[in-house]
Amino acid sequence: MHITLENRSGGSCECCSLAPAQFAFTVSPKKEDPQHQVALCDNCFTDVEKLEKMDHWRCVEGSIWNPEPAVQALSYRIANQLKEKESWAQNLLDSVEIDEDVISWATSNQSKQLIHLDAFGNTLENGDTVVLTQALDVKGTSFSAPKGTVVKKIRLVHDNPEHIEGKINEQTIVILTKFVKKN
After folding, report:
1. What is the CATH number of the domain that holds 152?
2. How far is the first Cα of the chain from the last one, in angstroms, to the nearest whole number?
3. 80 phi and psi angles, rounded to 5 deg
4. Above 60 in pLDDT, residue 112?
């Protein structure tokens, strides 16, 4: 843990204050820098991504008032994720006034990640190899890609989970995921 973070936290967990801080947790999507990190104990660190220990996370009712933006952002993020299950979390969010930049930081990771699936429900990732499950006419060209064509090193279209990009006959084209099978 960086000395700046250690000094700021006084050696205690900045979330629960119940145990010594052992880990520097970077509040995404920021960089690994002490001003973007929160000093956490083992208990908080192991559950911060899963949030399974509901009663434990009531500690954010106190930590959200910390003057450090990173601690506020993490506390807000935890309360925001628990607000559907825990009424205290919604009450906390309603009662606290936090800078809009901190709220944006806290909620930036909560936009849903788009998942690209092939015709059989397999998750596709950048760099995968796929096979066409049917013949496709390639718009804007004079060729068609036959069923069984192998497309290597695909790229996911970041804003549309139904599209991928790949090269066929040395030409990059957009392919619908419903017409491919992960190889």
Report:
1. 2.30.30
2. 43
3. -65, -35
4. no
